[in-house]
Amino acid sequence: MITRQQMQELAREHGTPLFIVDHDELRRNIAMFRKYLPRVTPFYAIKSNPMPEIVHTLYEEGASFDVASQPEFEVAVQNIKHMSEAEQKEWIYNRIIYANTIKPMEMLEALDKYRLLVTYDNEEEIKKLKKYSPNSRAILRICVPNKGAVVELSSKFGAFPEECVDLVYKALDAGISVEGLSFHVGSQTTEFENYTIALNLAADIFEQVAKRGYKKMHMLDLGGGYPAPYDESVKPFPVLAEVINKSLNALFPKEVFCLAEPGRFMNATAGTSVARINGRTVRGGKTRYYINDGAYHTYSGIIFDHQHCHVHSFRENAELVECAVFGPTCDALDVISAHEQLPADLQIGDLVYSDNMGAYSHASSTWFNGFPPAKVVHINLKK
Ligand SMILES: Cc1ncc(COP(=O)(O)O)c(C=O)c1O
Fold first, then answer.
1. 271 CB under 6 A from ligand 1?
2. Is pLDDT at 148 greater than 90 in this prediction?
3. 97 lines ligand 1 (CB under 6 A)
């Protein structure tokens, strides 16, 4: 894990705002996922942080990939350019899922030759698959409860359970091979029961489809949602893994290939941001700090990902009081935290940092107000 001293040295060397990616942490996270969920193959959700270096490290660790657009597909396949065409095709066939239920027609046409694994959740998408990518292999996404998840996804995606059997058969009638089912319990889910409910719903649909005659579904995609340890309220991963393993083993025979699309779990702890105080004022007895990274930049997860990011000072044993921390732009929306525990007397030029910033942060950074995204530094890359 990166030390506070390393953060300061890197900030002095590279300037701020700085976004540091620790690749040892990526390796640790994928190893932990595999250790506790041995039946589930991780397909890294590239959307959570698409940096090619991150994708490459996970590729080197043997990860598979969840892509949701053609550019994300390209980031993944950059890693296999050394393979022969036949090997590339085989790798894409086995190691990529296009997990966006709504797909652009051009993309479907362009990627049809790979017989891509794709998700769908409605009839119009079946028509598109038939017309533009008849060779794709479909996974039906079910709508499942997202209770307690920080980012709710079921209001936008997933077929209602009562529609599912028909949607499987409609795809089959259209000549599309249906491989299995998927779900997403919502990102940063802390109600582990969501997984139990989703697995039971999926098992029920598997059974109903088989009863009507089609017995070739053999894949179960458990989506993302595995929470990052942002604070002590998040129960440890082995606790969640036990819940999942129990239902999985009770409900699905071992021949069913299980995969998942973890994003945040893989990269949140691998990202640290370091910024500099560019302004300060005291109003109503409260110190306000204005730093050179904010809600339009590395802290964009506050808006897009409902994150609560904490800003820390490097000062040892300082008395902490409630302060406010703002980003650099002219928008009043650019607030990192109105209630942050910090020393009241930090000075202009002092550095501050936030940890657990790897997911949904730099990925949604903008150039608003002319401020570029934070500079990125990778540490512990393998040569
Ligand atoms: C289809 C799909 N899979 C996986 C993910 C990754 O989720 P998480 O970062 O919660 O693991 C998302 C996130 O939005 C998603 O939409």
1. no
2. no
3. no
227 lines ligand 1 (CB under 6 A): no
How much is the pTM? 0.97
* Helix ranges, the chain (H): 4-14, 23-36, 52-60, 70-77, 85-95, 105-111, 123-132, 161-173, 193-211, 237-251, 264-267, 301-304
Instruction: Determine the Cα–Cα distance for residues 1 and 212; give it in Å rounded to an integer.
Output: 52
Tell me the pLDDT tens digit for each residue of 87-131.
999 999 999 999 999 999 999 999 999 999 999 999 999 999 999
Q: Whose CA is nearest to atom 4 of ligand 1?
A: 224
Spatial CA neighbour of 111 closest among 146, 77, 162, 81:
77
- Distance, in Å, from the CA atom of 350 to the CA atom of 277, rounded to the nearest integer, reads 6
Q: Which amino acid, residue 219?
A: M
Two structure tokens written together for 235 = 């129960």
**Distance of alpha carbon 59 from alpha carbon 48, whole angstroms:** 15
Taken in order of first residue, the domains within the chain and their CATH numbers are 4-19+269-379 (2.40.37.10), 23-267 (3.20.20.10)
Is the N-terminal amide bond of 17 cis, ω within 30° of 0? yes
Cα 213 to middle of ligand 1, angstroms: 32
- The Cα 101–Cα 7 span in angstroms is 40
pLDDT classification of 292: cutoffs 50, 70, 90: very high
CA of 325 to the centre of ligand 1 (A): 29
Shortest CA distance to 9 belongs to which of 319, 377, 309?
377
pLDDT tens by residue, 9-31: 999 999 999 999 999 999 999 99
